[in-house]
Amino acid sequence: MRPDSVFAVVIEPQGLRFEARNGISLVASAREAGIVLPTSCRNGTCRACLCRVLSGRVRHLIDWPGLSAEEKREGCILPCVATPESALRIEAPKAFRSRVEPPLAT
């Protein structure tokens, strides 16, 4: 996989969409797209950003993210320290759009 690969991410249940670059945290990529994935510490310890992967693959950017073995088996990730390795669908009910997109020109 190329280090600059870009993947589509869909956030459920809101249906929010953004593109995320491999090697960049999902939180940072979402923010660039005007989407907020709630977070606090941004280093994988506070768990404020905890969400679940519904489809796709991620890699954590740190060796020991604050997840239990059971949470990992259930597909939980910490997007503040996770980067995409494929297109993703994640469940993050508290995510929201931070800015309004302009209407399409008609």
Largest sheet: 5 strands, mixed
Strand content: 25-35%
CATH class: Alpha Beta
Helix content: 10-25%
| Number of domain units | 1
**pLDDT averaged residue by residue:** 91
Element string (H = helix, E = strand) = EEHEEEHEEEE
- Secondary structure tally: strands: 9
User: What is the CA-CA span between the terminal residues?
Assistant: 39 Å
Q: Going by CATH, what is the homologous superfamily? A: Beta-grasp domain
Q: Please count the helical segments.
A: 2
What is the alpha-carbon Rg in Å? 13 Å
What topology, given as strand order, has the largest sheet? 2-1-8-4-6
Give me the CATH fold name: Ubiquitin-like (UB roll)
Describe the structure.
By secondary structure, this protein is mostly beta strands. 11% of the residues lie in helices and 32% in strands. A hairpin with a 3-residue loop joins β1 and β2. The relative contact order is 0.28.
Summarize the structure.
This protein has two helices and nine strands, in the order E-E-H-E-E-E-H-E-E-E-E.
